[in-house]
Amino acid sequence: MTLLNPRWLEALLDDFEIFGRDDQLPAPFASGQPWTTWLILGGRGAGKTRAGAEWVKGMALGRAFYTDRPISPIALVGETFSDVREVMVEGVSGIRAIHRNDERPEWQASRRRLVWPNGAIAQGFSAEDPESLRGPQFAAAWSDEMGKWKNPDATWDMLQFGLRLGTNPRQVVTTTPRSIALLKRLAFDKTTIVSRATTRDNALHLAPSFLETVVKRYAGTRLGRQELDGEFIEDRADALFPRQMLEESRSDEAPSLQRIVVAIDPPAGGKRGGTCGIICCGISENGTVYVLDDASIEAARPDQWAAKALALYHARKADALVAEINQGGDMVANVIRSIDTSVPMTPVRATRGKHIRAEPVAALYAQGKVKHVGAFPELEDQMCLFGPDGLASGKSPDRLDALVWAVTSLALSGEAGTPRVRGV
Question: How many CB atoms are located within 10 Å of the residue 37 CB?
């Protein structure tokens, strides 16, 4: 067996181009696409800090993969000064930790700056004090956890005024996304390139117990999608179903259920294409409705969505199929019966607007009488983005429609009626 020379091994481990994931490397930028900001969006523990630290290292040392010469000075902007030092500079994935001994920069605490052996300098700043960025000028910058900054717009503006040295000043932003205006503007700016990573993408460097407990517990929830999957989670001020209300409706499991239905909202006209909403719900002895499944299917032929609804019906041992017939008329019943004549079907026809029909269902949620067994991201996104004028996208809220029919069938009297008295 041939063993690597220790110096060769050290040099190999120092080469992040070999070990970094694509989302942690500026490789996509080699195509020549002009960019000013590299926005790295990721979940907790996804490797954002390592990517930012490696970028600063590459810039300060003049690594060919990052730049054609050493770049200095560099701004380091964190939520607080403590975060700059403890995370960005001294952290386990911070700037100092990823350098070889002979290249490691010195942290000068009194001056709040890093100094490399080659003379490159990185200066630390807190987002709590935007005015501290007034005056200094930089050739590059790394901003960390912008989603948590107390003064995001003011801090960012001051940083941009100072980013004016060299021929092509650039910056990296590493953050778990939050729905703040600044982050959304950056994400859609034509001079920004975006990388995304989830917590699971970095599983090799995380404790298995963390993945098993934390990731499993929060997967699919609003908090999990933001903090683990690195997604922007949008909310609508006039939403009929506020996201917080849905988070409070979660249940680990359903009790014994008295009745189970599978509701179908066929695509417009019952034709091929579009999305068919398919939702399964059950009701317990005390009148609480439990949402069990979202089996909605996109771009499906009638026989495809009918087969999927019937499969769910049998898997859940449901009591009935509830199908809206406004769009498909007799076609909906005919398609289902052509596959399985033994299934009882309850046709429903909408005579009121979607918002009116959904209001009593939202009231049941507010009263804690509807629970989600697990998380249903696509359904819940529709619910949280549904207002008086429908979805902002103009699309049909197919999953929500099916949910409304299922809950109405189980717990309400009439299309948009009052709660049904148990036992009647």
Answer: 19
Convert the pLDDT of each residue in 2-58 to its tens digit: 555 666 555 556 676 767 677 777 755 544 567 889 999 887 777 889 999 999 999
Cβ-proximal residues to 5 (8 Å cutoff; 6+ apart), any chain: none
Please, which residues bridge with residue 42 across strands? Answer: 197
Q: Are residues 140 and 271 in the same domain?
A: no
Number of domains the chain contains: 2
Question: 234 CB contacts (<8 Å, ≥6 apart)?
Answer: 179, 381, 384, 385
**Are 327 and 192 part of one and the same domain?**
no
Count Cα neighbours of 280 within 13 Å in the Cβ-side half-sphere. 23
417 lies in a domain? no
DSSP 145: -
pLDDT tens-digit profile of 341-384? 888 888 887 777 888 889 999 999 999 999 999 888 889 888 88
Residue 270 covered by a domain: yes
Identify which of 10, 9, 41, 87 has the alpha carbon closest to the alpha carbon of residue 226: 41
The structure tokens listed for 381 are 């996104």
Residue 12's SS3 state is helix
Q: CA 42 to CA 179: how far, in whole Å?
A: 14
* Cβ 258 vs Cβ 285: under 8 Å: yes
Q: Using the predicted structure, report yes or no on whether residue 299 has a pLDDT greater than 80.
A: no
Residues 6+ apart with CB under 8 A from 9: none
Residue pLDDT, tens place only, 199-241: 777 767 767 777 677 666 666 665 666 666 666 666 677 888 8
CATH label of the domain that carries residue 93: 3.40.50.300
Residue 186's CB is within 10 A of a number of other CB atoms, namely: 20
- Contact between residue 358 and residue 390 where contact means Cβ atoms under 8 Å apart: no
- According to DSSP, residue 237 is labeled T
The verdict on residue 220 lying in a domain is no
pLDDT at residue 229, as a whole number: 67
Token output for 397: 């809220």
